[in-house]
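In response to reviewer comment 3 from the previous cycle, which asked for concrete evidence that the modeling workflow produces usable outputs, we include below a single protein chain processed end to end. The sequence was submitted unchanged, and the resulting structure tokens are shown without manual editing.
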Amino acid sequence: MAGPLRWLARGEHELPAEPRWLTAREAARAAGMRFTKRRTEYLLRRWAGKQAVAAATGIGNGLTDLARIEVANRLSGAPYVLIDGAPLGLDVSLTDRAGWAVCLVGSDLSRLGCDLEVVESRSAGFVADYLTAGEQAYVTGHSGAEDRDAAANLLWSAKESALKVLRVGLRRDTRSVEVRVDGALAGPHGWLRLDVGTPSGRRLSGWWRRDGAFLLTVAADGAVPPPQVLPGSADLAAAVPVHSWVRRPVAPPWPAR
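The workflow returned the following structure tokens.
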């Protein structure tokens, strides 16, 4: 994976009220989404993706500038970037959770996955059902419910990142991969290493970080440097998880473009 890996976080509270920052195809897709949660997450991922591409390339981030950037999806679901309708020599990887999204930008992200999670309560049943015996021991080895929850969510996030690399997602039993992480759960502390064992004996490498209520993981098929933050990124350590869609589950009418 050539070149530096860079990242940026943005929140849903920044989303413009009108859709001039979207391409016609993006706006049409958003308009067809009936449920607020799905539409908001779709828009938030594109907002973070366009802001990251703008920061990485020097394109302006005004609404008209952002409308030149399109974050489209391949048949596999993997995102790719167009500028003025033409492919850009950068890839993006996107993840969102609880009103916040992270975009990774690099020259070749075809073998990379990322995942953003919130440190939230996880039951003993969740730990038993989704984690391996070794991972369960890692969770229960922490004293205090908050640290055990952080450990369970960290392992879950790393599994999601790894299963994206393997192109199987949650169709595969999450216990088929096993995660090992370095460092303490308290944060923020910057990036720390992780690795993931696969059924075939491959080992995926990656990174993780704790920022306030959020955990962010990156897994790759091969060595990658820790991602560098892009200018304009939100501070995840100060970010508050939100679930605004609960107040209005059905999406409102789409505004005219």
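The chain has a mean pLDDT of 92. We consider this sufficient to address the reviewer's concern, and the full set will be provided in the supplementary archive.
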